[in-house]
Amino acid sequence: MLSSWPSAFGVVERRSHHYRVQEALRRTEGEFPQTAPFKDALRETLDVEFRLAAKVVVYSSAVAESHCRYGVEPEKIQVIPISFEPGQLERTEQSVLARSNRNARKALFVGRATLEKGIDIAAEAVRRSRNFDKLLVVGSATAQVQAWMAKCSWIEYLGVLPGDEVRQWMESVNIFIMPSVESFGLAVLEAIAMEQIVLVSHQTGVGSYLKEANEAIVGSLQPDDWAARLDKLASISDEERRVRIGRQRQVFSRLSPTIVKQGYQAMYEELLA
Prior knowledge:
By secondary structure, the protein is of the alpha/beta class. The chain has helices at residues 19-23, 43-52, 61-69, 93-100, 119-128, 143-151, 163-172, 186-193, 223-234, 238-249, 257-272; strands at residues 11-13, 55-58, 77-79, 103-110, 134-138, 155-159, 173-178, 198-201, 217-218. A six-stranded parallel beta sheet has the order 6-5-4-7-8-9, with helices on both faces. A three-stranded parallel beta sheet has the order 1-2-3, with helices on one face.
């Protein structure tokens, strides 16, 4: 680490929002079990790393903004995404069948069932929605969170599943929902690759690449706002759904391995010039 060699010339790659964002304990929704305040054990080291680094690589503009807000010099920050190729995901006969039988009243959440991922917001939004009555949850969860989900009649917890089964569920519901505060969000891209409508938070990093699909971004973490967007999407026509999916899929043009390679190459050429 740079803090071990203060005279070194180097690059820090930061895979999450600034630690102060991660440490900010928001109010939980819907009696979600409150966790103890999180304090990043590396916070002091990270401050030194940010100060010494020539560049700080982050995956999205949302993460860049959080670092600028807490004192990292803007000129140090380099936004380079994670590459993603939708062709690497194969549709199976089961997933095709699942799409043909899509349940219009179900939403899907994929990821760790934690505050950072926004599971409590997703659950409360579905509960308050007029047009959705079930939230399917795929991913890991503590025993405490599983007990909370078991008390919520509108949540169906499916556990941790293999990738092909996850994609099958992605095709079986009406919408994929992710009210997270995270650096990127690969599950969102998988859902888009499966031609699913998505709703993501303004603090979900991948949202900053959905430039043609602003309707996929919810600009708050308030359950009422998410419920309203769910209800609005419930009534769109099949044609509008196809158009929205087409706009969402334009995200892949910004996430090719070539673009990521060019980003790193340009950064190092600048540093070594």
